[in-house]
């Protein structure tokens, strides 16, 4: 949660992608704060400036490019010993000009998968997660027939799904692990990532482990996660998001944002509450509950990473 007694320096920064999906990074000059580390280009918002103008000015000053289109990606508050920053990160989707280090700083395009091995200022780690995560996430429905399930999954991967939470509460542990192995190899063939929903055994090939909101309250540090594997969690309110932050999740799902077909009369957050809750955490959050493909725009406008869905993704393609 942000510390209201702290004055955060508002900094805009950009995740700039080329047509192949590579991301442009610059190396901070040695004499500056966090010198020598890689950064997302950007800088301080001047007084009276709106963030998008600050971003446009910084990208011209630092890289000689003209910003044409950008959308919010994530906001992070971080307290260094010397200063506190609010990193207001935007995803640049269109620009003109050829990026070069106008202030003499080295600039390089990296694939998203190269980012975790680079050295960044410590505030940046959630930005790397956000840059690697897609806008849409599929949470699978309960598998009935495994062969049919894999075939259905392949259709969604072909349609562009790049993040899958393999959720199968009805399967025995051995069956879950066997099907998970197949889900992972199928998804990896498409360059998609697979998060396993709290199996008793964590597979080395999986990209992450997902916790239900109940599992969030288990003993800290006992989750069977390996180095490099993400930890995600289902949350429904501020208390669960805070707990997710305390145990160090990489990203979360917040629900229900809208009414769902399975619980049509149940209370839901609505987009404004979603935005207010997301504003206070420093990791990417997917909107879940009642999401259709069109809601990706709403999720991004309200500070989310994107949308997660079971039914609408499984049945709409
Ligand atoms: N641009 C940028 N700044 C970051 C990142 N991560 C991070 O902690 N910061 C911190 O945000 C602060 C402001 O960034 P900056 O030094 O780029 O500001 P600026 O371009 O206006 O530079 P200037 O002070 O030379 O005018 C610095 O303390 C920097 O360490 C990042 O990824 N990109
Ligand atoms: Mg700068």
Automatic annotation (TrEMBL):
Where in this chain does the record put each Nudix hydrolase domain?
Answer: 6-135
Q: Which reaction does it catalyse?
A: 8-oxo-GTP + H2O = 8-oxo-GMP + diphosphate + H(+); 8-oxo-dGTP + H2O = 8-oxo-dGMP + diphosphate + H(+)
Extract the PANTHER family matched here: 8-OXO-DGTP DIPHOSPHATASE (PTHR47707), NUDIX HYDROLASE FAMILY PROTEIN (PTHR47707:SF1)
Please give the NCBIfam families that the UniProt record associates with this protein. mutt, PRK08999.1
Answer whether the UniProt record assigns the keyword Metal-binding to this protein: yes
Cofactor(s) annotated in UniProt: Mg(2+)
Record keyword DNA repair present: yes
Q: Which domain of life is it from?
A: Bacteria
The scientific name of the source species is: Thiothrix winogradskyi
Q: Which family does it belong to?
A: Belongs to the Nudix hydrolase family.
One molecular function GO term is: hydrolase activity
Alphabetically sorted, this entry's keywords are: DNA damage, DNA repair, DNA replication, Hydrolase, Magnesium, Metal-binding, Mutator protein
What protein name is recorded for this chain?
8-oxo-dGTP diphosphatase
Pfam families in the cross-refs: NUDIX_4, TMP-TENI
Enzyme class of the recorded protein, top EC level: hydrolase
Entry EC number(s): 3.6.1.55
């Amino acid at each position: 949660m942000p510390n209201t007694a702290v004055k955060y320096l508002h900094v805009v920064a950009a995740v700039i992608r080329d047509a192949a999906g590579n991301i442009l990074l610059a190396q901070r000059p040695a004499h500056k704060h966090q010198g020598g580390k890689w950064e997302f280009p950007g800088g301080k918002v001047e007084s009276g400036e709106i963030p998008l103008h600050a971003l446009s000015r910084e990208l011209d000053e630092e890289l000689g490019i003209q910003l044409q289109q950008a959308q919010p990606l994530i906001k992070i508050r971080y307290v260094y010993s010397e200063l506190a920053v609010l990193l207001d990160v935007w995803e640049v989707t269109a620009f003109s000009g050829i990026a070069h280090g106008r202030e003499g700083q080295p600039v390089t395009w990296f694939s998203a998968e190269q980012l975790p091995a680079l050295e960044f200022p410590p505030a940046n780690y959630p930005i790397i997660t956000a840059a690697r995560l897609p806008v849409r996430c599929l949470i699978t429905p309960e598998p009935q027939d495994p062969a049919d399930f894999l075939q259905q999954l392949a259709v969604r991967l072909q349609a562009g799904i790049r993040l899958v939470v393999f959720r199968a509460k009805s399967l025995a542990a051995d069956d879950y692990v066997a099907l998970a192995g197949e889900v992972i190899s199928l998804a990896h063939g498409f360059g998609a990532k697979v998060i396993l929903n709290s199996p008793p055994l964590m597979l080395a090939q999986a990209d992450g482990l997902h916790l239900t909101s109940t599992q969030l309250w288990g003993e800290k540090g006992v989750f069977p996660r390996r180095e490099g594997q993400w930890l995600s969690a289902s949350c429904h309110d501020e208390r669960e998001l805070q707990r997710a932050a305390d145990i160090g999740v990489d990203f979360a799902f917040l629900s229900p944002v809208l009414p769902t077909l399975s619980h049509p009369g149940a209370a839901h957050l609505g987009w404004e509450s979603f935005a207010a809750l997301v504003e206070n955490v420093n990791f990417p959050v997917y909107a879940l509950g009642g999401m259709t493909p069109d809601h990706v725009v709403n999720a991004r406008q309200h500070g989310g990473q994107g949308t997660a869905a079971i039914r609408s993704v499984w049945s709409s393609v």
